[in-house]
Design goal:
Largest sheet: 2 strands, antiparallel
Number of helices: 1
Order of helices and strands: EEH
Shape: extended
């Protein structure tokens, strides 16, 4: 169906839903022994020693700093 007929459409790449793939959307929980969240970071946080964020840390960051993707 052409985009003119369906003005709003979303694609889903089912092949990315595999344990060996690392693609994930922002704010998704990662399936690990200790749950972590795929969250956006400030550039000064990126580097050696960077750790995964826990769900409660992400909620706190959203309350304090807002959504980094909205900037």
């Amino acid at each position: 169906m052409s985009p003119a007929v369906v003005p709003i459409s979303r694609g889903f790449d089912w092949s990315q839903n595999h344990p060996a793939k690392t693609t994930v959307t922002p704010y998704s929980l990662r399936g690990r022994e200790r749950p972590a969240v795929a969250a956006p970071r400030h550039w000064d946080e990126v580097g050696p020693g960077m750790t995964q964020l826990a769900p409660d840390e992400v909620l706190r960051r959203l309350e304090e700093d807002g959504d980094l993707l909205d900037r």
